[in-house]
Design goal:
single chain; 92 residues; mainly alpha
Length: 92
């Protein structure tokens, strides 16, 4: 037996009956306020003192990266190390 094309379980997004431009613009504004990705240099710049303390206490870049990752902040170990060393040089 063939099923009807529109059985109410479509995965396609449903469009509102009337366009809601103001609502869409408000949602876009909220989206713009929350960046999807934070630049590695910004992560390290803001967390430099804490990163420096952790390194001095013997924590590895892997340990530090896990802390960021557990909170949804994605940064590679390579970027973390490179950015940390670059900022550290400017503070010497």
């Amino acid at each position: 037996m063939a099923q009807s094309k529109n059985n109410g379980s479509s995965n396609e997004p449903k469009e509102p009956k009337e366009p809601d431009l103001n609502g869409a613009l408000e949602d876009l504004k909220k989206l713009a306020e929350k960046p999807k990705k934070i630049a590695p240099e910004e992560v390290v710049r803001q967390g430099f003192d804490q990163i420096e303390t952790a390194i001095k206490q013997g924590y590895s870049y892997t340990d530090i990266r896990k802390v960021f990752s557990n909170r949804g902040v994605q940064i590679s170990i390579k970027d973390l190390k490179e950015q940390y060393e670059a900022i550290a040089k400017t503070k010497e």
